[in-house]
Automatic annotation (TrEMBL):
The keyword Cell cycle does not apply. Homodimer. Keywords: Aminoacyl-tRNA synthetase, ATP-binding, Cytoplasm, Ligase, Nucleotide-binding, Protein biosynthesis, RNA-binding. It catalyses: tRNA(Tyr) + L-tyrosine + ATP = L-tyrosyl-tRNA(Tyr) + AMP + diphosphate + H(+). A motif ('HIGH' region) lies at residues 57-66. NCBIfam families: tyrS. Catalyzes the attachment of tyrosine to tRNA(Tyr) in a two-step reaction: tyrosine is first activated by ATP to form Tyr-AMP and then transferred to the acceptor end of tRNA(Tyr). This is Tyrosine--tRNA ligase. ATP binds at K244. It comes from Variovorax ureilyticus. It is found in: Cytoplasm. GO terms for molecular function: tyrosine-tRNA ligase activity. Its main location: cytoplasm. It holds the Pfam family S4.
Length: 410
């Protein structure tokens, strides 16, 4: 055993609970013994630890996969520690090379500012805004200047930078690496110096950048932060990581009915991983629920509870309840209480053209494909004739399980 290593048997109840919460769903917590000592010091002195999460506003919206790290921040926030939500308005101008096989094109200042406007509002759906410190890394990065940047760059070697997996692969493959990309991990690490961070969180793809923070804090004479990496959440397919490009995501700004239905679409196996990474239920509560399912309770009950919890977090409890009822109505072949209404002209109108004009299909050819697949209903009856022309009148048009419209055709 290492000198000074703390055993679990020597932990107080409060520190033991904090460690358990820290480790829940975590990929790595490094170094764990240092984190325990920080927790013990915090408990003894009553001084909250400073816990940092940095997000670059590279897109205007986030999906629930991004909230895995935010959930961990909320759990640590509820223990009484200081949570710092860092918006990387400066680092975004460089572009994070993590996991990239090409140079990431930097965004313009206008794009960054537009995206940053939504980030805190979205993060506040998970974090407690009243107890969250909001910072922008341009606060200290802009004043650093050229001289300060050169002095910072002198604190790390090119050899160690090239140990980074994505840089190493690109170099061996003869792919370009721009010099400014070396600045990204340095600037992210310098954020930890500026904020005197005790713990920094990130996805597993951020490990190199997080360790850079530890190195630079030591270079600047500070106690190094610990790092905590969270796994990347699998999407609706249960295979690939959640991604808009793979269309296996749930956007946190999606309507409650769609959000609820998407959660219910995941597999029973994936459900428990989502519980661990996304639910605010305690480990004991999740274990008890899993035991009930293993003893014969319908797993759908647990999935409905998860769907309602996630939907309520990003909308409200009444809207989550309404989404559940909407799902029940749809599963019974019923029509939701509220569906879009629109007026169309041109009767008699071909069914594929109607689907396109109603926004239920992107094109007439896709409309015909949906009809061939049996996915189109008019007033609850399946449409099988692609040549169908509808006369003037009002119709409830359904595509798939979740798309409805009440069309008034003249």
């Amino acid at each position: 055993m290492k000198p000074g290593f703390v055993t679990s048997a020597s932990l107080s109840e409060g520190v033991g609970r904090a460690l358990e919460i820290s480790l829940r769903g975590t990929d790595e917590l490094l170094p764990q013994d240092e984190w325990i000592r920080k927790l013990q010091r915090s408990e003894a002195t009553g001084t909250p630890l400073r816990i940092k999460l940095g997000l670059d506003p590279t897109a205007p919206d986030i999906h629930i996969g991004h909230t895995v790290v935010l959930n961990k921040m909320r759990q640590l926030q509820d223990l009484g520690h200081t949570v710092i939500f860092l918006i990387g308005d400066f680092t975004t101008t460089i572009g994070d090379p993590s996991g990239r096989n090409t140079t990431r094109p930097p965004l313009t200042r206008e794009q960054i500012e537009a995206n940053a406007q939504t980030y805190y509002r979205q993060a506040s759906l998970v974090l407690d805004p009243a107890r969250t410190e909001i910072r922008y890394n341009s606060e200290w990065s802009d004043p650093l200047g050229a001289r300060g940047m050169i002095q910072l760059a002198a604190k790390y070697t090119v050899a160690r930078m090239m140990e980074r997996e994505d840089f190493n692969k690109r170099f061996k493959a003869g792919q370009s690496i721009s010099v400014h990309e070396f600045l990204y991990p340095l600037m992210q690490g310098y954020d930890s110096v500026a904020l005197r961070s005790d713990l920094e969180l990130g996805g597993t793809d951020q490990k190199f950048n997080l360790l850079m923070g530890r190195h630079l804090q030591q270079e600047y004479g500070q106690e190094p932060q610990c790092i905590l990496t969270m796994p990347l959440l699998e999407g609706l397919d249960g295979v690939e990581k959640m991604s808009k490009s793979k269309n296996n995501y749930i956007g946190i700004s999606e309507d409650p009915n769609t959000m609820f239905a998407k959660v219910l679409s995941i597999s029973d196996t994936l459900m428990w991983r989502w519980y661990t990474l996304l639910s605010f239920k305690s480990i004991a509560e999740i274990a008890a629920l899993k035991a009930e399912v293993e003893a014969g309770r319908n797993p759908k009950d647990a999935k409905v509870a998860l769907a309602k919890e996630i939907t309520a977090r990003f909308h409200s409890i009444p809207l989550a309840d309404a989404a559940e009822q909407d799902f029940i109505n749809r599963s019974k072949g019923g029509v939701p209480d509220e569906i879009p209404e629109l007026n169309l002209s041109g009767a008699p109108l071909g069914i594929a053209q109607l689907l396109k004009q109603a926004g239920l299909a992107p094109s007439t050819s896709e409309g015909n494909r949906l009809i061939d697949g049996g996915g189109v209903r008019i007033d609850s009856s399946v449409v099988s004739d692609k040549g169908l022309k509808l006369p003037a009148g009002s119709y409830v048009v359904q595509v798939g399980k979740r798309k409805f419209a009440r069309v008034h055709l003249a």
